[in-house]
Amino acid sequence: MHSRKIIIFTGPSLSHSDASDILRADYRPPVRRGDVHEALSDKPDIIGIIDGVFHQSPAVGHREIIEALRMGVTVVGGASMGALRASELYDLGMVGVGRIFRAYLNGDLESDDDVAVAFNPETLEALSDSLVSIHFNFERALESGIIGEDDFRELMKIAKNLFYPLRNYQRILHDAEIPENRKASLMSFLESEGRDIKREDAIEVIKYIKGLLSSDDQDHGCETHGS
Known about the structure:
This protein is an alpha/beta fold. Helices cover 48% and strands 8% of the residues. Strands 2-1-3-4-5 form a five-stranded parallel beta sheet, with helices on both faces.
């Protein structure tokens, strides 16, 4: 029986402990340039890329992911850096999962700024909100009639103009020139119904990889412990 080696790079989108509740694997911090190449020495069967660094140090290279694919490693991406790279390397065999991946693939998202967040290097917790989740939630507030078209446009303009480590709902609402009662309604909506799209997609990536293991079990008629 071949126990499959799975390496997954995640952090601010989904904590290692929450990911481990879904699937046992070798969880590593957000991927940097060289990390995938280095991971290949551990002979993984599957590499999952969720989070990665964007600006603090060089981002994960296309070449090292292509190297993994050529070696027969299944590489799955989604949610953040993984969604971006999967959309770029989709034609070469990288698997993309989730709403954010599809948005990059069809051109609705183009910039890494849409998914970039600041995170605590010790705990890997997110310290800012992603533009992709902000846009999704403000759009839902608009559809629900909590804010109007002009409010939505102003809120998104402020969000886009903020440097990503400073981008959060409190800051955006503080800077927006919209009536206080609408601000209060919007904040209440965000607290009760706000969704974290990156987290949702990250969970989808883990579940997709788990699904690969169960289909592999059926193909080989054996039980696999994915770690």
